[in-house]
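Notes to self after the Tuesday call (sharing in case useful).
The group wants a holo model before anyone commits to mutagenesis around the pocket. I volunteered. Ligand is adenine. Logging inputs and output together so the record is complete.
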Amino acid sequence: MRIDIITVLPELLESPFEASILKRAIEKGLVEVHLHNLRDYSSNNYKQVDDYQFGGGAGMVLMIEPIDKCISELKSVRDYDEVLYMTPDGEKFTQGIANELSLKGNIIILCGHYKGVDQRVRDHFVTRELTIGDYVLSGGELAAAVVSDAIIRLLPGVLGDETSALTDSFQDNLLAPPIYTRPAEYKGWTVPEILTSGNLPKIEAWREQQAIERTEKRRPDLLDD
Ligand code: ADE
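Result:
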């Protein structure tokens, strides 16, 4: 898989891909992540990429031309399955969408900034618009990092234990059950006995039951769909 991220602040997106699981995935060649500075596609001497909005109003708008140039250049080299735009008024990003996107080959992620992008970018280049939650970030970069992380960890070979993504919260619409590690007793606080019993079928049944109870209590909305 290949992810191309278009941004006015590439610095903000460097560190998430330089540590831990994402770094290892890149080193193993399981994914390529390329950051593109929108300013490099500006056609004027000031490297301008934003301008005032027609009709007046506070806040700058990312211009269509540099975005078109960047996307067109990328598309001239390879085909893309999706052009995602990170925006607070997009579709809510979920584990289901992460699963779907993890099956794609090449994707572009466009980060909004200031007031956002010229609507014509959304109309003519973007295939899917995503928000990571009902709050406004200062730009789409952190959201792009969140979406990339959620996708990349699902790629085959990225997680050490191949089954571990399947037991995450939200895969099957349930939250994950409680987990414990050694010591079995700490300050008198013990681990549920079943987990040290060695009885795998019973442990599985207990985890399933705990997952259901936790979901009913914390996120009953997940059980509706
Ligand atoms: N850009 C600003 N806020 C955002 C959000 N909540 N999700 C995605 N992109 C954003």
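Two things stood out.
The pocket of adenine is lined by residues 86-88, 112, 131-133, 135-137, 140, 143 (CB under 6 Å).
The chain has a mean pLDDT of 96.
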